[in-house]
Design brief:
The complex is a heterodimer of chains A (309) and B (346). Chain A is mainly alpha-helical. Chain A is 72% helix and 1% strand. Chain B has 346 residues and is mainly alpha-helical. Chain B has one domain: ABC transporter involved in vitamin B12 uptake, BtuC (Orthogonal Bundle), CATH 1.10.3470. Chain B is globular, with a radius of gyration of 21 Å. The model of chain B has no long low-confidence stretch (mean pLDDT 91). The chains are: A mainly alpha (309), B mainly alpha (346).
């Protein structure tokens, strides 16, 4: 019984913990498949986390908070698309500029309005148990007694996989990332596709950020994302842009994180920093083993110029 | 034709100037929306760096930026995106913090400082070996791996300083304090020799990249690996060298922080110079003189940001906003400039 309870808590907590990164990684997978590498994801997550938190705090509506997070992410994605697709600016520089700007902007606004009061949203019951299904041992509490956004994410995974790998639209996205010239010749609007994936990735990052401050923590702190956005980029590459594989990777990552918290709670004499280190080691090791034969999309980070070979 | 060459040469400076003006304008607008008088705020911002104290503080702050920038000038020229400066800085810093009491016990001041500087440099370089090997021999993108090693280093150093490397005689987690007499010799009001090392490093790299065969070869590798391979340039060896040198300079900046400014390594210390150095090197277009100017300017702003926060209650993050805006505006300006020029030509 003890063991079952432990596993149940670990699985459900780690699933919830993995959601911010998972959402961002799913968006980034589309982005990268379409030929865009967005290092601004980290900043866009911060934007979603702060704006979502602030709106939820002011209006008292968590739903509006999430909507704001998504909108801020999508607008950031749109600006990023304009800079990298229309103006064809260097994606790495623009992405880094974006992240610096967002770190500054969210930190500035938070400190300006809330100082060091560290406001939190009222702790309410956040999960929505699905009748009957949530009563199944282990699986019930893990998969069917979660936050609405967790359900949404779980539903998105197969949908996103299907769109990317089994529809013409998905084929267009992949074509735009690999051979934009051929896609263009076949009548695919390269710029339009790239705009779409960039806005989508921004919205997903914003939602992920909002889940961090609204779903997981109920508070915002400057720099709250702690590099989750970059891990999301790594996760998208590690999962070879397949939403299913990205999901598994993200969940494993969440497990290590939850383990760190769990060991703290049951007072195992180990420094939390030591455990918090492990996910990053894990990502590097995984990259060594998995990504060696993972080929990046051919036109990743390269703007498309009509008529160029 | 000659005239065109002239505008071409001035282009980066004009882009830079407009980027600074544009970011300050947006910043002023933001302050105005929040009900803060922008003129008053900028007055405070600019006054902080004036006077003897302001100038010395700015010079102290710019030293690590110079060292990290020197490394970035090499590695970015080689077409390698080492974004792991913060981690390499921390590893260099903590090794120096731990080694200093031991080395100080056996060696006189100057040799001890030289060896500690070496330890910082090598520590930073060692921290980049894994991403460098993965990039150069396995073709694994270094952007993500170096950022991962950043976070790894943040937790590793903070674990080490709270656990194994902790000075047990004091309560806060830190390495033993280095006595003032064993720190880097000062030149003027707190400004120490580290500044000279930083300036020399930036200028040295500037001339190395422009006036030496090895610098030229690194530039070729950065422009086109194919060309480099065909002309018989040892791409792997040069890339490795550039990668490790840049990481070494970041480690040296860490050593500078411990030996020149703080005198110890503290738990949860992460000054995060990496992105600032990255932004300024890029905006300086790898030119040594401009790098030094921008490093001074950014430190000047940082100091002004702290003064603003003290006097007007505007959070120090304001300067981070300016920095991000400047970088984005700079890239946009470069684009606009190029387009305007092209249109005028045709």
């Amino acid at each position: 019984m003890e063991v079952e309870a432990f596993i149940t808590v670990l699985l459900s907590a780690s699933l919830r913990a993995s959601i911010p990164m998972l959402l961002a990684a799913l968006g980034e997978a589309y982005n990268e498949k379409g030929g865009i590498l967005n290092l601004g994801i980290e900043g866009m997550m911060l934007g979603g986390a702060f704006s979502g938190f602030a709106v939820a705090l002011i209006t008292g509506s968590v739903f509006l908070g999430f909507m704001t997070g998504v909108a801020v992410g999508a607008i950031s994605g749109l600006i990023f698309a304009y800079l990298s697709v229309t103006l064809k600016l260097d994606q790495i520089i623009t992405g880094i500029g974006f992240t610096i700007l967002m770190v500054g902007l969210t930190g500035f606004l938070y400190r300006y309005f809330y100082g060091r009061n560290f406001p939190t949203l009222g702790v309410s019951k956040k999960t929505l148990a699905i009748p009957f299904l949530s009563k199944i041992p282990v699986i019930g509490p893990v998969l069917f007694d979660q936050h609405v956004v967790v359900y949404l994410t779980l539903l998105l995974i197969p949908l996103l996989h299907w769109i990317l790998f089994h529809t013409t639209f998905g084929l267009n996205i992949r074509a735009v990332g690999e051979t934009p010239g051929a896609a263009d010749a076949a009548g695919v609007n390269v710029a339009q596709i790239r705009y779409l994936v960039a806005v989508f990735a921004g919205a997903m990052a914003g939602l992920g950020g909002a889940f961090l401050s609204l779903g997981n923590l109920s508070l915002f702190v400057p720099g709250e994302t702690q590099g989750i956005g970059y891990i999301a980029i790594a996760m998208a590459m590690l999962g070879k842009w397949s939403p299913y594989r990205v999901f598994i990777g993200a969940w494993l990552f969440g497990m290590v994180e939850s383990l760190a918290v769990g060991l703290q709670i049951i007072a195992v004499p180990v420094q939390p920093e030591f455990i918090l280190m492990l996910p990053y080691v894990g990502v590097i090791v995984a990259m060594v083993f998995l990504a060696r034969n993972a080929r990046l999309p051919a036109k990743l980070m390269l703007p498309y110029e009509r008529g160029e070979r | 034709m000659n005239e065109m060459g002239w505008t071409e040469r001035l282009r980066p400076y004009i882009s830079l100037m407009f980027a600074i003006i544009a970011s300050f304008t947006v910043g002023a607008f933001l302050l105005w929306i929040l009900g803060i008088n922008p003129l008053r705020a900028y007055q405070v911002l600019f006054e902080a760096g004036l006077g003897k104290l302001g100038i010395t503080q700015t010079l102290i702050k710019m030293t690590p930026l110079l060292m990290i920038s020197a490394g970035l000038m090499i590695v970015l020229s080689a077409g390698i995106w080492n974004l792991g400066e913060d981690g390499q800085f921390l590893i260099g810093a903590i090794l120096v913090g731990v080694a200093a009491p031991i080395i100080n016990a056996y060696l006189p001041k100057i040799p001890a400082l030289l060896i500690l500087g070496m330890i910082g440099f090598l520590g930073g370089a060692a921290w980049a070996i894994i991403p460098a090997v993965l990039r150069i021999w396995y073709g694994l993108n270094e952007i993500i791996t170096t950022i991962m090693t950043d976070y790894l280093a943040i937790y590793l150093t903070s674990w080490l300083v709270k656990g194994p490397f902790r000075d047990p005689s004091v309560i806060p987690p830190q390495t033993p304090v280095i006595p003032l007499v064993r720190r880097i010799p000062q030149i003027w009001g707190g400004v120490h020799i580290g500044l000279i090392i930083g300036v020399v490093a930036v200028l040295g790299v500037h001339f190395l990249m422009r006036n030496s065969t090895i610098g030229w070869k690194i530039l070729v590798v950065g422009k086109s690996i194919k060309t480099a391979v065909h002309t018989g340039i040892p791409v792997a060896r040069l890339s490795m060298m550039a990668f490790l040198l840049s990481a070494g300079f970041a480690g040296l900046a860490g050593a500078n922080g411990v030996l020149g400014v703080k005198g110890l390594f503290q738990g949860d210390w992460n000054p995060a110079y990496g992105f600032t150095a990255f932004a300024l090197v890029y905006m300086a277009r790898f030119k040594g003189g401009t790098v030094i100017f921008l490093a001074y300017f950014f430190s000047f702003l940082l100091l002004g940001g702290q003064m603003m926060s003290l006097r007007l209650g505007t959070p120090v993050f304001f300067v981070t906003i300016l920095e991000g805006l400047m970088l984005i505006f700079f890239v946009v300006n470069e684009y606009l400039f190029q387009h305007v020029l092209e249109r005028r030509r045709s």
